[in-house]
Design goal:
This is DUF350 domain-containing protein. This protein has 133 residues and is mostly helical. Helices cover 83% and strands 0% of the residues.
Length: 133
């Protein structure tokens, strides 16, 4: 009964560890790209920063999940992970260019800006995930 699960555990562990590593790398890069420290803002109770970063994390995790399902090996999954990372970082850059004041709004705790960035990240993440073949 549990034989298929037990025999699949090594593959699960490999894909899960790789997905987590990709997620950590994305979060580090995202925090590096933004001109404010999301983690410090979140520690201080800034809801806008928490919503914005949370949306970016989920927006990136969606295509990674699809890449796990559709990839026949970990290297293909990593390739799609890199593509998804670039797309999500570009989304932030475009949002920043389109709405330059967003760099001030998030540190000021303006939740509307956080919701906008999160929604943008989620929407693009869903589209990105749907395009993975």
């Amino acid at each position: 009964m549990f034989d298929p699960v037990i025999s699949s555990l090594p593959a699960f562990a490999g894909y899960f560890a790789t997905a987590l590593a990709l997620l950590v790398v994305f979060v580090v890069l995202y925090i590096f790209v933004t001109p404010y420290s999301e983690l410090a803002l979140i520690r201080d109770g800034n809801t806008a920063a928490a919503v914005s970063l949370g949306g970016a994390v989920v927006g990136y995790a969606l295509p990674i999940a699809v890449a796990v399902v559709t990839s026949h090996n970990i290297m293909t999954m990593v390739g799609w992970g890199v593509v998804a990372c670039v797309v999500q970082l570009l989304v932030y850059v475009v949002a920043r260019l389109a709405l330059p004041q967003i760099n001030l709004a998030i540190p000021q705790g303006k939740v509307a800006s956080g919701i906008f960035l999160a929604s943008l990240s989620l929407g693009i993440g869903i589209l990105n995930a749907g395009c993975i073949a």
